[in-house]
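Thread: quick sanity check before group meeting

JM: Hey all, I'm pulling together slides for Thursday and realized we never actually wrote out the predicted structure for the chain we discussed last week. Dropping the sequence here so it's in one place. If anyone has concerns about the input, flag it before I start.
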Amino acid sequence: MEKSKRFTGVYLNKKSNGDISYYITYRDANEKFKRVKIGDKSKGITEVYCNQKRNEVINQVRLGDDPLAKKKKKKIVTLDDVAKIYFEQSIHNKDNHKTKNKYFTKLQKRFGHRDIQEITPEEIIDYQAKFLENGLSPSTINFDVTFLGTLYNIAIDENLFQGVPPTRAKKVKMLKNDNDRERYLSTDEINLLYENINDDVISTFTELSLSTGGRLETILNLKVKDIDFSNGVATLKDLKNDSTYKGFLQNDLLSSLKQKLLNLKPNTYVVGLKETKYATRTLQRKLQTILNNLFNEDLDSKDAKNRVVIHSLRHTFASHLATNGTPIFTIQKLMNHQDIKMTLRYAKLAPDSGKNFINDLYK
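JM (edit): ok, ran it. Output follows.
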């Protein structure tokens, strides 16, 4: 460190790369000696500037203020801090990994580094608008806003936040979700689907799905030991609701499964016939390609109501039960719906829904 030859209290530190760092020295209000770096020559700092800066500081110290004194930083709590608490508390929650992925995909990038005291309702509304414009479904965006509210509740419980969370502002509203899937396959379309499947694994999955109405992961997790061949019953795992329930296998399917599963170990997965679960993404890719080619060719990719997707097989199962006159509470049981409201949307398909009475009016 060298003293400036031109100015008192200005020092130069020459670096190996040829750059120069400039420092100034002075005594604070307590007569304590201070040396503070002002900056580098490569950033435009000069000896003249340092001398001016030193004179300003000395004058301000005389007036009782030290502009270069290190201020005690206000401790802030970021959304990431609160999220960390949430995920630690929810470590045994079966959906924890899925929720964590959703958080880090979008919310964390926008708000993770932010002080939770400074996030505004306007920013949340902007967040909704941005992702809606980018083609995300309202339900996905609503999940993010709901989870953001959950994190604020955690912050309140942990005494990290006071006041009204921005998610509770009247102007922040949940987006209307008008994408309930109404599309299901007719009998002719089901036959067409089977005709176009030339993969035994995909065929088995489709048959099981249309016979039981099980969700994708429910079918993929079905093992040999879960099938009661004597009664034609399968024990199904509902991973969404963390429960098990009974599904019934049609006679033709039961007969073909008996031959396929003969002499296989109890823990062998029915779809794929291995002791490791068939990859979800592989099945999704293969089956969705077939569905797209057969039924979605002229539909917009965002037309959630009318596009046929893998979940449409479950919807097809329930819809055909309803059109065949199956009581609504029986459908609820077969679908393992926790709330009858989920099942009631199929009531309009029942033969006694009123259609026959309308046809006979005024005759």
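AS: nice. Residues 77 and 115 are 5 Å apart (CA to CA). The beta strands are 2-3, 10-14, 20-27, 33-40, 227-228, 233-238, 243-248.
JM: adding both to the slides.
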